[in-house]
Structures are given as C-alpha cells and as structure tokens.
Design goal:
This protein is of the alpha/beta class. 37% of the residues lie in helices and 14% in strands. A hairpin with a 2-residue loop joins β14 and β15. α6 crosses α9.
C-alpha cells in the first residue's frame, strides 16, 4: 500500500516538473521573440519606441501621451507601426496646426519589392501619413498591399499610376486633402511636407514636387522624389484628364512622371514651386550627397532642373521633404538621425506623427 502511494506521489511530482518545464520554455521563447536583437527582425524602431516612451526619467505629462504598456511589451511583431498604434493620445495644446493637414500617401511597389523595400517604408516613415496605401499588381492581404489590374515592369509604371489614382479617388477621396505618390525607395519627412502644404489651398488645382523643365511646357515633377496633388488636382486628373484621350495618354507605357505632368497641364493644374523662402530645394530626386557636391558637372540632371541650384550646404532647405534612391539600411539611419538625435542647445518641442496624430517625444 505504501509502495503504491509512493509511486503515485512520484508520478504527480514528475508531472508537475514536466508541466513547469514546458511553461518555462514557452516563456523563454516568447521573451526571445519580443526582445531579439536582429537588426530587421526586432527592428531598431521598436526598441527605440520602447526606450523613448517607457524609460523616460520624467513623468509623462498631460501634454504628452501614455503607453498601453502591457500590449506594447507583450505583442511581438515585425511591423512596428502596430506597436506605435498602441500609443494613446491624452491631450494636445500645441500651436502646430500645420500637422492637421490631411495627407494620403501611396507607395509604388511590386510583388518583388514588397518585402525587400516597401516593408522598410512601412517600418519608418509610412505610418506618419494620415493614410498610407501600397500599390502593387498583386494583392497581399497580410501586408497589406492593393492589387491593381496592371502588369509589372518599368514600362507599366504609367498604367499603375493611373490605376492607383483612380482607386484612391473611388475609395479614399474624402479621407485627405492632399495625395502624395512615392516610390518604395523614397524616404519622406511627413512633418515637413505638411508644413509646406499648410500655406496652400487644397481647393486650388496645383501639385508639388521636384520641378524638371523638359518635355512639358510648364515642367513636371520627378517621380522618384515624390509628388503631391491637391484635392482639386486629383479630381481634375481622374474626371477630366483620364477620360479624354486628347488630354491624357490612354497608353499604359511611358514615363509616369512626364505623362502625369502632361495630363495635369492639359486640365489646368499648375506645377507649383516647392522651394523654400530662400529658394532652396525640398524634394530631392537623389540622395543628399549629390547635392552637397558629388554630382558630376556632365550629369543629366543639370539639363533637366527648372530652378538654379547651389551645390553645397545651401543646396537644400532646412525642411527637406524627400530623398530618393534610399536603401533599407539608409531608411533606418535617416529615421534615427531625424527623429532621435538632437543637439543639446536645441530647445524645441518635438513630435512623432502617427497616422496623422501628433505624439510629443
């Protein structure tokens, strides 16, 4: 009898130890998935967000924001915008009204570059727009990307651009006042875009970007640097230009930025001047190093540019809006440089934009 009781007791102890070991293993796996150190998998944006908002030495005031800590630390996800969506607004008594400008951003991507390029747009600047759409030829419901009825390839960019703007007009026209197109290797500083647009009227037929002077009488905007259409410009493009073969090319081939420029000019949309008050450029069709002095004198850009450009430190606005030809590593570097580093003498309030909502940092 005693032997039987002892056997049962040892069996129960063994079962308890087994279950405890299993639960401990699950906890360790869960912890490693949340706090991993892989550059892309764990993402420096996630780590920075946790450090910046959870480990601040000063208390979070009513002018700032509180973090739903449990959800933030218990959710493991590569897509960092999901982490950032867990920030809950408390109050906002700032005078930065320009951040209320509503901007929809759409990113030109493809099934081949969705994870290698567009993923890093989504993890850095993409969530700062009021709404961001990723336009491809194939739908990906988990990313998500929108599948347009077009073929892929450089010769099909014009077809994709037309279909993307038609889709936006049909499904999202009332959700924004300005509509920006960018490539999946473009880096955008959304706050600076909104700052520029705050002095403009979205009811005017106008669009902005980096102005080139060739092919179109009033010039056109570089596709790689990104361009932004007013609400009126988008309305005219979809309802007046696209249905009329005399005003807009019905072909699916051609340079998308040139063809768009022709269509918009033909329906009275003005190619606006996006330079700052000191005539310095804000939309950059290349990386910053080109404008600081590494652009060859015989480079094609010099015959395309519409406005004079100073090479060097005065090339570009203090409020640069975009850079082009940015690889994934540079996306995270720009994110860090722009939103993390501050000189000690620089006393201003600084904010994140999260889906158009301002978050003080």
């Amino acid at each position: 009898m005693a032997t039987g009781i002892s056997t049962v007791r040892h069996g129960l102890i063994g079962l308890v130890l087994f279950v405890s070991g299993f639960l401990l293993a699950l906890i360790m796996i869960s912890t490693s998935s949340v706090h991993g150190t892989d550059f892309i998998g764990s993402s420096p944006i996630k780590q920075y967000t946790q450090q910046r908002f959870l480990n601040k030495s000063e208390p979070v005031s009513s002018r700032q924001y509180k973090v739903q800590y449990n959800r933030l630390t218990n959710e493991s996800t590569i897509m960092d915008h999901k982490i950032l969506h867990n920030l809950t607004k408390i109050a906002d008594d700032s005078d930065d009204k320009f951040l209320n400008v509503r901007v929809l951003c759409w990113v030109m991507t493809s099934p081949f570059t969705l994870l290698s390029k567009a993923r890093h747009v989504k993890n850095t600047w993409g969530w700062r727009c009021d709404k961001t759409l990723y336009m491809s030829s194939v739908e990906n419901s988990s990313f998500p990307s929108i599948g347009l009825n077009v073929t892929e390839g450089r010769d099909a960019l014009w077809a994709k651009t037309k279909e993307a703007f038609k889709y936006i007009y049909k499904h999202h026209f009332d959700e924004a006042d300005w509509f920006l197109k960018a490539d999946d290797d473009t880096f955008l500083i959304v706050e600076n875009l909104k700052y520029m647009l705050a002095s403009q009227n979205s009811s005017d037929p106008i669009y902005f970007g980096h102005n080139f002077k060739t092919f179109v009488r009033q010039g056109y905007m570089s596709g790689g640097a990104g361009y932004v259409l007013s609400k009126e410009a988008l309305d005219r493009f979809v309802n007046k230009a696209l249905p009329n073969g005399d005003k807009c090319s019905a072909s699916g081939s051609g340079a998308e930025d040139v063809e768009l420029g022709k269509c918009l000019q033909n329906v009275g949309v003005v190619a606006g001047d996006s330079r700052d008050s000191l005539n310095r450029t804000r939309f950059l069709p290349f990386g910053l190093e080109y404008f600081l002095g590494s652009m060859p004198k015989n480079f094609w850009y010099w015959s395309y540019q519409k406005y004079p450009l100073k090479v060097g430190r005065e090339c570009c606005s203090d409020y640069i809006i975009s850079f082009h030809y940015v690889n994934p590593k540079e996306m995270y570097l720009l994110e860090f440089y722009i939103y993390k580093i501050r000189p000690a003498s620089y006393h201003q309030n600084h904010y994140y934009l999260i889906n158009g909502t301002k978050v003080k940092i």
